[in-house]
Amino acid sequence: MRFVILSSVVAALLRSGSAHAQEWINYEDRAWGFSINFPHEPKMEQIGYTTFFGQTVPARVYSAERGSGRYSLTVVYFSGAPTDSHTAVSYAAEAIRDKGEVKYYAFDSLDGIPGQMITTTQSDGRLIQAGVYFVDQRLYIAEGSVAAGSAAAPSQFHQSIRIVDPEGNPIVLEPN
């Protein structure tokens, strides 16, 4: 009898775990050069992004919400606009740091692509985790946040980003 009960409990846990994992999808936009996990199909909005130098350049914001979680990926296209990767990444990271108290801030490398990782807590306790990267004239800002006291951190989101080529292959930069 114990075996039947234990088997039923294990089966239920496996079903709920796999159902939870299936809630997230891998979303890819090869034209804008990325793949990332979202809790469901994101909405996309075209915007103008103001650079450090005051120019407005085209950008897209992909976003989704689930419960208290908010997830967005902003892809900024710098073609023809003056910038360098360090300035673009630093400017975007500063905007995230300005949203709250910085808990973690470090330089990062995503498949050899230099960037920064930031964790902040807003005054209401909301946790923000983000990664910012620049390659091939594109700035990628992956930002996830959850309400104070949420059991799940948004790290699954920002850590799932991959920068891809037009065929969907990850771009990997070799160290200099």
Descriptive account of the structure:
With 176 residues, this protein is of the alpha+beta class. It contains 3 helices and 10 strands, in the order H-E-E-E-E-E-H-E-E-E-E-H-E. It has helices spanning 2-22, 85-97, 155-158, and strands at residues 25-29, 34-38, 43-50, 56-66, 69-77, 101-110, 113-121, 127-135, 138-146, 162-163. The protein has a 7-stranded antiparallel beta sheet. A 3-stranded antiparallel beta sheet has the order 1-2-10. Strand 3 (43-50) and strand 4 (56-66) form a beta hairpin. The model is unreliable at 1-21 (pLDDT under 50).
What level of helicity do the residues show? 10-25%
Count of helical segments? 3
Order of helices and strands: HEEEEEHEEEEHE
Low-confidence stretches: 1-21
Largest sheet: 7 strands, antiparallel
Principal-axes shape call: globular
Residue share in β-strands: 35-45%
The average pLDDT is 88
The number of strands is: 10
Helix/strand-derived class? Answer: alpha+beta
What is the gyration radius calculated from CA atoms?
Answer: 18 Å
Tell me the strand order in the biggest sheet: 3-4-5-9-8-7-6
Distance between the termini: 63 Å
In short, what is this structure?
By secondary structure, this protein is an alpha+beta fold. The chain is built from three helices and ten strands, in the order αβββββαββββαβ.
Summary keywords:
globular; seven-stranded antiparallel beta sheet; 10 strands; alpha+beta; 176 residues
Fold topology:
Layout (H helix, E strand, L loop, with lengths): L1 H21 L2 E5 L4 E5 L4 E8 L5 E11 L2 E9 L7 H13 L3 E10 L2 E9 L5 E9 L2 E9 L8 H4 L3 E2 L13
Antiparallel strand pairs: 1-2, 2-10, 3-4, 4-5, 5-9, 6-7, 7-8, 8-9
